[in-house]
Design goal:
By secondary structure, the protein is mainly β. It has one domain: Pnp Oxidase, Chain A. It is built from no helices and eight strands. Strands 1, 2, 3, 4, 5, 6, 7 and 8 form an eight-stranded antiparallel beta sheet that branches. It is globular, with a radius of gyration of 18 Å.
Length: 130
């Protein structure tokens, strides 16, 4: 069984790597509708629509114009999430994402950080880097 270190991960917008990524998350969900009928002894359901949401958290880098600067609230981006790196054979999750939130924070004894929330605009596609 294979496992991976989080430090192997990469996040891109199109072909541009987002700078200073600390972590990312991708949550996929499916809506359901009930199709229970008279005579059934338990509730039954069917899957309907899927969606996804997540976040990308970074150390803030104002010079990352194709990455962090491009992720403004309301922007639609071609997001690519690589959990194990971006070399041939590695897993890749692609999604057209709408940036729903941007947050920046700083503390006197820490780094300036930025957090970007997103929701999918279409399906998440799992594939392998070729």
């Amino acid at each position: 069984m294979a496992n991976h270190k989080g430090s192997e991960g990469v996040v891109k917008i199109g072909t541009d790597t987002i700078a200073e990524v600390k972590d990312w998350s991708l949550d996929e969900t499916a809506d359901t509708t009930e199709d229970t009928t008279m005579g059934d002894s338990a509730r039954t359901r069917k899957s309907t629509l899927t969606s996804a949401s997540g976040s990308v958290n970074c150390f803030w880098d104002e010079t990352d114009t194709a990455g962090q600067v491009a992720m403004t609230a309301g922007a639609e981006v071609a997001l690519k999430l690589y959990p194990e790196g971006a070399t041939t054979g590695d897993t890749l999750y692609s999604v057209t994402a709408i940036i729903t939130s941007v947050s920046r924070s700083a503390t006197f004894d820490g780094m300036v950080e930025a957090s970007f929330g997103f929701e999918s605009n279409g399906a998440v596609v799992a594939s392998v880097v070729s």
